[in-house]
Amino acid sequence: MIYFLSENTTTGTNAGNKARMDTETILKKKKYSPIEGPKSIQRLKHGNKISFFLKNSSFLRRLKKIPLNEYLVVQYPFLVSYKNGEGWLDCSFILERLAKRNKLILVIHDIDQLRFESSRNNISDFKLAAYIISHNQKMTNYLINNNIDQNKIIKLEIFDYLTSTENSSNHYEDEALLCYAGNLKKSKFIYKFPSELRKSKVNLYGNGYTGNQNGLDYKGAFPSDKINSIIKGKYGLIWDGDRIDTCSGNVGNYLRYNNPHKLSMYLVANMPVIIWDKAAEADFVKKNGLGITINSLNEIPEKINNISKDDYLKMNRAVKDVKSKLEEGKFLLNALNEIESRMKNA
Known about the structure:
By secondary structure, the protein is an alpha/beta fold. It is built from 14 helices and 14 strands. Strand 9 (178-181), helix 8 (195-200) and strand 10 (202-205) form a beta-alpha-beta unit. The longest helix has 20 residues, at 309-328. The chain is globular, with a radius of gyration of 21 Å.
């Protein structure tokens, strides 16, 4: 039997919530046995550990029901809500306790050491795991370079995107050239779009837009389980930071390692993509013919001019091939099947 920690995650406009909910749905599809996670804790000035252990004695008792040395899947980082889901606290410190009794399988959503200037030591957490599901080869290389055994790492390739809603457009006739969806508050580059791109129109979706520029059409924020059926634009843009000539800062640099969930959202919406050529997922886009890679936003007009209608429709067909796999959870299912195979041969 393989167990997993079941999170109390609700839907919303946060793509991270969507990824975690889909992961849990796929774990249930695999018939893994759920262990109900903590309900909520408080954010304390002196840290969260005391609150966690005081508030979650029933959760700790549930953990003891898992037989010794059985496998336990944990989504990483291990998050617990506070203020009725208004925020989430990283409680990955529990992993050390879990690893004393069980063999951990960590499904990585984020590595904060790569995202922020300062964070807890993620590498020490990964050393506790029996198996790790990494985003892609670039993230896998990072783990190996930090002395994580490559034999316990399995690549996801791309996040799945389970949905029952359909985007009826193939987007070739869409009025706007670009669609950009995400946390607009941190995406400072949107206020610097080249005039030529603004003339071609850009649709923006998400929270945090405060501008009023010609050519940028803010469409609002939508639930993460419905936005794929709503977005419009010939291409979905994957870019981050505060510059247009390169992806910059912590959020931009993070694209070198992570699988942005917006890539999956665009593909499920039938939308070819334009992605920074140094992003980790640029390799996946090129390999599968899903769109265009760029070094700078200034390159987009010239690259688009070289794309014929036949070229676009060919990309659109490739998008739909990957889309069908994303909607079925194939990428995580394949990673879990690979782990099970390695368990049997260990």
